[in-house]
Specification:
Blueprint: H1 10-16, H2 20-35, H3 39-54, E1 58-64, E2 68-74, E3 78-79, E4 82-83, E5 95-98, H4 108-126, H5 130-144, H6 154-168, H7 173-189
Antiparallel strand pairs: 1-2, 2-5, 3-4
Amino acid sequence: MPEDTPPDETATDESETLPDPVVEEAERLTRLAREVVDDAEAAVYREERADLLADHDYTARIREEDRDTLVLYPEEWVEDGTVYPDQIDDIDRGIERPLEGPGAAEEWEPVEEHNRTLAEAVASEHGTPHGENAHALADFASNHYAKPIDDLTREEREEFLTEYFPRNAFPSDDQKAVVEESVRLTLTAADADVTGAER
């Protein structure tokens, strides 16, 4: 029986951070738990989120500061119920998703649908990596500000390019090389103002 099969490194790589679909589902379940009135129903959503994250050895908490933020991080970071950031080697494995922003949070689902439609249009018309970048922009606009991509201000678009994209999108070199053009293409798809003027 051959023994030269290389080790399966995929599982190891995936265990180091959360796949985007898992992050999005954790975000969705968190929002649902916050929106429902019934405590028992909210608890079901939180339990479903916990089970989802546990499959990837992650856990979640809500950080309440200027605005509530969903924080996802590896279970190994927790010691006796406390996280010690100064003892973490790779803090980039932690993922944050603001749950509040200038946009109307109660309209998140139609906003998400609108932004995702724009991203799909860019992907269909221009392929990858522009499509991947457009979806990252959709994530940012929907989850960070709960507002349509075409309503992002110049400062918010700059925040996406300089802070959110490199830290949260896990972009490839190809994506990084064209991200500014990807943003312009997405705004064009929305018939937005791409001249840099304030909205």
